[in-house]
Write a structure and sequence with these properties.
CATH superfamily of chain A: P-loop containing nucleotide triphosphate hydrolases
Oligomer: homodimer
CATH architecture of chain A: 3-Layer(aba) Sandwich
Order of helices and strands of chain A: HHHEHEHEHEHEHHEHHEHHHH
Distance between the termini of chain A: 45 Å
Strand content of chain A: 5-15%
Radius of gyration of chain A: 23 Å
CATH topology of chain A: Rossmann fold
Largest interface: A-B, 86 and 85 residues
Number of domains of chain A: 1
Shape of chain A: globular
Structural class of chain A: alpha/beta
Largest sheet of chain A: 7 strands, parallel
Strand order of the largest sheet of chain A: 3-2-4-1-5-6-7
Chain lengths: ~350, ~350
């Protein structure tokens, strides 16, 4: 069976098989990505990141269902969910999560769920996530939800893949957790306080807003001065955050288990999409993303091409000389590449 | 002033200045690293990683003090602390932490503390941490403690720098936190349950041991069968974990605020060092680390050399053609590098 043709024809088994090849960076997977590339670039990629305990999986579930049964009579979107859990390779937690999810979404041919829990080299997981998302994009999914645990740099990189990034918080996870999230607010397009019926929700909202102010002083200025305290709460269908073409990250409250706050959340996501399209930001992000992808591929190919001309023995010998401090790494590179001096711009 | 000479002569101001140059990847910093390289490779690098709330900063403080005032009459070690906090670039938490730390260690010329809170590109922080550690190594610090928050891939990479890695837990941080740490156990040489006077310490220890068993079944087999349940608790000065040359990660309890459990912890760290030296593992890790460093530098230089021959306009044009799906990334690389086909091994 030609998996690429199968994926383009909407066959789920072909899709699942090809994703496995791509995830494992197999030669067939690489070739398929190359052939599928011209079909990509259409999906709206939505990142959902948050600490464990914020209920972000339930929220992702809810968003997927909302896209399948739109309230306003529009046709349902095809939805894919990619759940990335880099930190539990042993527990099988990610797989269990899938099963729980599938109970709600099972049997719906317009929904596809995939977990990624493999660990690779530095950047390995964000690289394979990007590749899997490309396959789903080519397969015609309109909305691709990328769920990450959201604490380290690799999760931030995965979130950067997305057009629209939701950062999920919950009351009562402690100040420590709040503090660790400060860096992640930088990438938030929409902030969601889930489990908003819990005590302490006002404190969480206050902490989020003040961290947000530190992260984006210029944005909050517009949010709070330009249109008053409620300005950064978008109303359904109204892209009012577009004033001056600056996006003000709204802070929303949800209770995923009771499906409370969903309409506002869906409106905010679609409002952000409208903002991206209206301002040209969609194109800018796409350009940056493709440039990064190109550079990474170039790097890999340049190293592979160089490596073909060097024997294992020669390389091992150089490392031994490094270990004995006869050579510095810079001198070693000059010698291996036969350069008088390395370019200053490296 | 020649900063390199100053650092080698033990001048603290030169050290602080050079670290700033190295951290910011300035040309002077790169040149200094090259000159300092022959003086590196002597320090014992100790990684300390754990979630916020485990009290790992207090523990690092305590370890530093213990190395400054050894109980057994040996001469004190020179100690450097590198505190890496990638996730709070805005709060200034890292700087505040330094001040709290300095209250205890202030005025001791044998201790040097440095915080790193900058965010860079993917791998940027682990790259600059490695460089700063090299400077401290060349400056003659015997023990370099590298403290990380420990959740994502970049923290794991930073921890991989170390010869000896401590993973710190605490009771009562919730099952979610336990779960997220599973991946990090893979890199643990020593497990520390701090705040061991808190309720739930038995549960934490049980959870850690069972996760550890999943991570290292072969190690735990030796630990539990070969020498009974208490086998993986090293006694002071006795490297009894060396049986069969397999390291059994011990699980230790401490209460950092009361300096409780410190003697056992220090013994375990030194025991691990003895294990590394006795088994040749020290050399193996050093070889791997230098090989990774060499490969990364090669990659950067190869890209820089290629980039010198390409105009900004040409590169922008290629990305635009990618964006319009006229080219795939693989075809773009073939075109930019003037190859018939990319090497299969990329």
């Amino acid at each position: 069976m030609d998996l690429v043709a199968g994926v383009l024809a909407g066959e789920r088994l072909a899709l699942a098989r090809l994703i496995t090849q791509v995830e494992n960076d197999m030669p067939e997977g690489r070739e398929a990505l190359n052939r599928l590339f011209s079909h990509t670039g259409k999906a709206h990629l939505i990142g959902v990141t948050g600490s464990p305990g914020t209920g972000k999986s339930s929220l992702v579930n809810l968003i997927a269902k909302a896209y399948r049964t739109p309230a306003d009579g529009r046709p349902p979107c095809k939805v894919a969910v990619v759940a990335v859990d880099p930190s539990s390779p042993f527990t099988g937690g990610a797989l269990l999560g899938d099963r729980v999810r599938m109970r709600d979404l099972a049997g719906d041919p317009g929904v596809f769920v995939r977990s990624m829990a493999s660990r690779g080299a530095l950047g390995g997981l964000s690289h394979s996530t990007a590749a899997v998302v490309q396959v789903l994009d080519a397969a015609g999914f309109d909305k691709i939800l990328i769920e990450t645990v959201g604490a380290g740099q690799s999760e931030v990189d995965i979130a950067r893949l997305a057009h629209t990034t939701l950062v999920v918080e919950a009351p009562g996870l402690g100040d420590d957790i709040q503090a660790i999230k400060a860096g992640i607010l930088e990438i938030a397009d929409i902030l969601v306080i889930n489990k908003a019926d819990r005590p302490g929700v006002e404190n969480t909202e206050r902490a989020l807003r003040s961290n947000l102010e530190l992260a984006h002083p210029e944005r909050m200025h517009i949010g709070s001065c330009g249109r008053g305290g409620k300005a950064n709460q978008p109303k359904a269908g109204m892209p009012e955050a577009l004033d001056g073409q600056v996006w003000v990250p709204p802070v929303l409250r949800t209770i995923a288990t009771q499906a409370s706050g969903v309409a506002e959340l869906m409106a905010a996501i679609e409002c952000h999409l409208a903002y991206l399209k209206a301002t040209g930001e969609w194109q800018t992000r796409e350009h940056e993303r493709l440039q990064t992808e190109l550079t990474q591929l170039l790097q890999a190919v340049l190293v592979a091409r160089w490596r073909e001309g060097v024997s294992d023995a020669e390389l091992r010998d150089v490392v031994t000389r490094l270990q004995e401090r006869e050579l510095s790494p810079l001198k070693a590179v000059e010698q291996l590449l036969d350069l008088d001096a390395v370019p200053e711009s490296y």
